Amino acid sequence: MTEEKRDLRNVARREGGRMARFGGVGVANTIVDLIVFSALVAAQVSPVAANIASFLAGNLQSYLLNSRITFRVEGAPAPLSLRGYSKFLAAHLFSLALSTAVLLLLAHRIGPMPAKGVAILLGFVCNYAASAFFVFGASHGERRGA
């Protein structure tokens, strides 16, 4: 095996592991989102306000866990900052808008649930790429080739 192929396999293995950890963190965030949403609705908070609050709770947890679990480099967690979280939130809000557009375009053609499946897959890829290269990538030298 050539050095170039070995390097490519190492990158694929590393990013595959990160994507799996990112997905696991996403499951935990979804659980938090549902718990917060359910509690707020049970407390007579409007569903829209509850959804915004639960999204933000899950999103903040996502930022914290991804910095500690998914995007560690050589055992060091990614640094946390208000600027970093702002970038993370912006990326996820963009993904939310994109997945909503996918739903609007596809739901009447293939049905709402298959359209939601496509939107989830697209959102996962978009969120991972934004997190890996836009949010956490600049904080570690490996992303810049150092």
Spatial gap, N to C terminus: 25 Å
Biggest beta sheet attributes: none
Q: What form results from the Cα inertia axes? A: globular
User: Tally of extended strands?
Assistant: 0
Q: Class by helix and strand content? A: mainly alpha
How many domains in all? 1
Considering DSSP H and I runs of 4 or more, what fraction of the residues is helical?
over 70%
Mean pLDDT: 85
Low-confidence stretches: 138-146
CA radius of gyration: 17 Å
How many helical elements?
5
β content, as a range? under 5%
Concise account of the structure shown:
This protein has 5 helices and no strands. The chain is an all-alpha fold.
Structure overview:
This protein has 146 residues and is mainly α. It has one domain (3-144). 83% of the residues lie in helices and 0% in strands. It is built from 5 helices and no strands. α1 runs antiparallel to α2 and α3 packs antiparallel against α4 (112-135). The longest helix has 40 residues, at 3-42. The radius of gyration is 17 Å and the shape is globular. Mean pLDDT is 85; it is low at 138-146.
Features of the shown structure:
single chain, 146 residues, mainly alpha, 5 helices
Write the layout of secondary structure elements.
Elements: H1 3-42, H2 47-70, H3 82-110, H4 112-135, H5 141-144
Helix pairs in contact: 1-2, 3-4
